Amino acid sequence: MATKQIFVNLPVKDLDKSKAFFNALGYNFNPQFTDANAACMVVQEGSIHAMLLVESFFKTFTDKAITDTRTSTEVLLCLSCESRAEVDELVAKAVAAGGTTPRAPQDLGFMYGHGFQDLDGHLWELVFMDPNAQMPQQ
User: Fold this and answer.
1) In the CATH scheme, what is the code of domain 72-138?
2) pLDDT by residue (tens digit) across 109-137?
């Protein structure tokens, strides 16, 4: 069975600024699927990608309006991290590159999370789940 891949498509206002933002976080782009209208950001080689699409190009895939991320949230993107330190490092890189942190980190004992809002207002959650911690009983 072939490995499944996911391509999350996100509208962006300025493709070059968005690419620079995510490059600052350490992400690379697949040149095979990158041009003036779109950039294929590799989140996890061979499985997870974010397609950053210029808004006018994004609109060719849907008749619906693009969400105004200043007032609404269309999706929460959540990525797992290997440690609490990686969560904090990525958030710090995002802020240094012009992103914001919409809320404080959350420490639930078994799970630590924080996140950032990118230049276009998309929310990226980052979590570390401690494999040795006990989940709280319901």
Assistant:
1) 3.10.180.10
2) 899 999 999 999 999 999 999 888 776 66
Distance in angstroms (rounded) separating the CA atoms of residues 96 and 90: 10
- Rounded to whole angstroms, the Cα distance separating 55 from 94 reads 22
Q: Measured between alpha carbons, how far is 57 from 79 in angstroms, rounded to an integer?
A: 26
Give the separation between CA 85 and CA 44, rounded to whole angstroms.
19
CATH fourth-level superfamily of 1-63: 2,3-Dihydroxybiphenyl 1,2-Dioxygenase, domain 1 (3.10.180.10)
| Two structure tokens written together for 46 | 């061979």
Q: How remote is the C-alpha of 65 from its chain's centroid?
A: 21
Domain(s) of CATH 3.10.180.10: residues in the chain: 1-63, 72-138
Rounded to two decimals, the pTM is 0.89
CA distance 4 to 25: 25
17 secondary structure, DSSP code: H
**Strand, helix or coil for residue 59:** helix
